[in-house]
């Protein structure tokens, strides 16, 4: 085991790189020239032309593409990675998560944290589970690594919130117990492959 | 005395065609590991005897299949690690281990550092050919710290082996599993070794060896450390964290003076509370075995300390008017150096009763022997010695490292041992058949040393007057003993067939009285031994013994005649081949003894550092100014092995340190560890920067931690030793200052996984007599304590705990460890 990490006692003085940008104009005249140049280039009217053409097509040629969001929503692919959901076992209704910690480990933005404990039934209980959506980059690794198909990405993509860092707790993500019958199996990242059965080697049983 | 006993002969061997050097007589597995060659092995533990439970270390040596863990290397040996047959065996063995092993790696505490996982993947076990009905196995809690899940157990027997061969408790052993019989068809179809291994596995499980559901042991948790799977886990750690979430911080155990290398493993304590917390302590179990305090006493940090300026200024004022600084041995070398600087620059007295006696003893020893420190250490004893002697150490309580070494020598080196101690302990004789215990009266420690001189000293070297003094104890008396002798008798018998009389010779046993001279050694009787039986027993013990070691404990430092004892030890070193190791009392006592110039008395205004005082600096969080605890600071310790070892900070600390006070008082460098290169060179320390100190074990077991103290040695004349006073032995009701195992100081007491209570520990018989609570009256005060029965103690001496500094037990005992007391029921 290396000891290097213990030798750096300058916590918080990491090296930042400064980008090599062009210098901003300094004199008022130079500033004015830059604005004028950018404004009266022909590009402005090229863009305007495209807009006018599309408006014409939509209004007079019946080529309207707009969906009236939020009244209308497009169906999204099962592989879309939106806000996470925690699924339950269909038979018992118990949550599927076994607290193995693989999602926590694989998470590249370190936004998953869980607490586990030894419960009265000698089982590992997930006492709390949280995702920091201020940090989550929706990469889908957690869903892919989950051995129990417990954490999946749901279709809820509206993630605007009042706070930059919005946390979700275990019960927020768990399928509500009264809606268990509506729980959808997940086909996206981390789902069992269609030919999984072919790849399984059977273990002999002595019973 | 001789420095190097055996010149280690090197032989050259070939592993898979590559030539390597190996130590002669080494096991193939260890030789391979020392040369960084990988041979799979599960059940073998370095420093313990091979169990041959897993059989996975099978290799081919000179064309023959052998187990690498118990076959020794020979000159020119050619070893193949993998042959087609061996690979088949190994794969079958791993498949067998996986039969019925619960597929709960996802929740298992060992997941990620599990040897079953690793070897299953290493040997690419991707399908299963064997099957057997499973047996119901229930989870058990063996003790307040041990949690056993037999469902996960692969019966590699590492736990039982380490408990017996290293720890000495032998508290767990294999028991009957009551499993189904293996299908007969497998015997034909599967590889031979795999079948044999399965046969054994299917019959056994692990259980406490005393036949109950609970272990009666020292709760050191070494079985947890060596368990390759998740079967044995600390009760407190079950399902708390995955191995990979924990950050490992290399450190040194802050409690016993062994200076065990440990790792604190930390992670944020919860989702809401992101402060780091130590979840467990682990160790390099192949090279170092921990005691219960090192493993379980880890959460003693001084939490929530802030930079309280008012308290800091008060502390500065306190130091300025201080006459004395009182402290104990829970302190780093750097801090000891700071206190010494304060003494030099400000003239305060340094008062440390815990270490002062040891320091004086060390000075006497240095004067008498010419050596700056003792000659051996516990690791060398385990490697080489086959005869160990322990004098003045309550092995089970004082020094776990010495206890392990004493036991390991009996188990692995076919050794013998002599144990001199006033308090009878039933565990020590169980270490081996050749262990003789002398439970002498307190005060007769010198007699024990004279006996050692008599038994081991080279008569040529021993001074005449010492020889004469020892001989004065010897008497020879003539004794009549009855002996049975065969006697041939001739008889005339009438032959019934022929009627003739025939002469027949017969052998008849006859008892004859015979006079013999018996040499009696009065020293043996004085020490509570049997001078008639001992010479024979000793002769047996001495057979084939080559390397002798002696362990010296705290009793001798606190003895009234400590100076004479130090001289006797120097004399033993000079006239015998015995190597000596001394146990510094607790933590960093050796560092303090070497660095600080301690005073005998405290006077004036006292600043206490983790001790009582008018102004208290405390890492326990209850003082006038907070200090960082040992798991919150970096620095070095000086261990019993004469090694200066670095420890790192596991947890953050927000308050002031001693170095901050130093900056204001006398000026100091920026960081505490800047003191490391300033440690006194004349005492053996080196001017090495803290960051340059290594902290690891090499694959061949070499300890590459910090550096060894430089030891100076000058020729010294044989010391003149004095006779001892036979009347000085203590009689009557005696109290012995001694902590229960796992308790050393306030910090172990603070830790939540240490349950040993503060009280008076007595033998079960004595406990019945004393009742629940007693007042122990000393000549300078008294203390009321709970009576706690210790099943492994015998006799009437009671052990009084001293680990709570506030209770002032050191002051009650004064300069000795044994005191005559009056015990009253309360």
Could you explain the architecture of this structure?
Chain A has helices at residues 4-7, 28-39, 43-60, 102-106, 141-145, 170-173, 196-199, and strands at 84-86, 112-118, 124-132, 151-153, 167-169. Chain A is of the alpha+beta class and 207 residues long. Among the domains of chain A are: 28-60; 84-191, 2-Layer Sandwich (Alpha-Beta Plaits), CATH 3.30.70.3270. In chain A, the strands form two sheets. A three-stranded antiparallel β-sheet of chain A has the order 2-3-5. In chain A, strands 1-4 form a two-stranded antiparallel sheet. Chain A is extended and about 85 Å long. Chain B is α/β, with parallel strands linked by helices and 826 residues long. Among the domains of chain B are: 1-82, Ubiquitin-like (UB roll) (Roll), CATH 3.10.20.740; 87-110 and 117-241, Alpha-Beta Plaits; 366-474 and 530-582, Dimethylsulfoxide Reductase, domain 2 (3-Layer(aba) Sandwich); 729-825, Barwin-like endoglucanases, CATH 2.40.40.20. In chain B, 26% of the residues lie in helices and 24% in strands. In chain B, the strands form eleven sheets. A seven-stranded mixed β-sheet of chain B has the order 38-32-37-33-35-34-39. In chain B, strand 29 and strand 30 form a beta hairpin. The longest helix of chain B has 17 residues, at 353-369. Chain A binds chain B through residues 1, 3, 6-7, 9, 98-102, 104-105, 113-118, 122-125, 128, 130, 147-148, 201, 203-207, and chain B through 105-107, 111, 126-133, 139, 180, 183, 238-242, 244-245, 248-250, 268, 270-271, 634, 648, 671, 691, 694-696.
